[in-house]
Amino acid sequence: MTSMTPAVRVLKDLAADFEIRLYRYEEHGGTAAAARALAVEEHDVIKTLVFETDGRTPFFVLMHGDREVSAKRLARILGVKSVAPCPPAAAERHTGYQVGGISPFGARKNLPVYMERTLTESPRVWINAGKRGQLAGMAPAEILRILAPVLIEAAV
Q: CB-based contacts of 22: which residues, under 8 Å, 6+ apart?
């Protein structure tokens, strides 16, 4: 059953065109497990990562499930000395979501969002809907409309 998370509430309130798909969450399974369970390409499953700058400023990075983020490239894009993933407890504190269920929609804090540019090339992507085992499927245009992310090229 779909959980009415803050993410789902935001998507509904903003009349987003999306669908919710549920799957059995696998501890440490990541996007590969989600893609397998939903029978979709891992490339189209978005990792919602919480990073922070060397000055401890948190932000979201939306990345293909089968790609990694180059921290060096990302720091250059942001014009800072370094960036790193937030520790899980800090990510949960910033977002209000549990790691494995972090969504950029309806997060506790309004964090800047950086999105890998090539995600816009997929006809449909799958992004966390605020709970482990619950993804929202939508066109990338919906993410662009709702979050207005900065498009970046930081994948490796």
A: 1, 2, 133, 134
127: containing domain: 6-152
Q: Assess contact for 63 and 113: CB atoms under 8 A.
A: no
Place of tokens 């999306």: 18
Tens of pLDDT, residues 7-33: 999 999 999 999 999 999 988 889 999
Total residue length of the chain: 156
Six token digits for residue 19: 């669908």
Output DSSP code: residue 44.
G
Largest CA distance in the chain: 44
Taking Cα atoms as reference points, which of 108, 5, 1, 7 lies closest to residue 50? 108
pLDDT at position 43: 97
Q: Tell me the three state secondary structure of residue 58.
A: strand
Tell me how many domains the chain contains.
Answer: 1
User: Token pair of 112, please?
Assistant: 């800047």
pTM: 0.95
User: d(Cα 65, Cα 107) in Å, to the nearest integer?
Assistant: 20
Mark out the alpha helices in the chain (DSSP H runs): 6-13, 30-38, 71-78, 88-95, 140-147
Question: Is 13 within the bounds of a domain?
Answer: yes
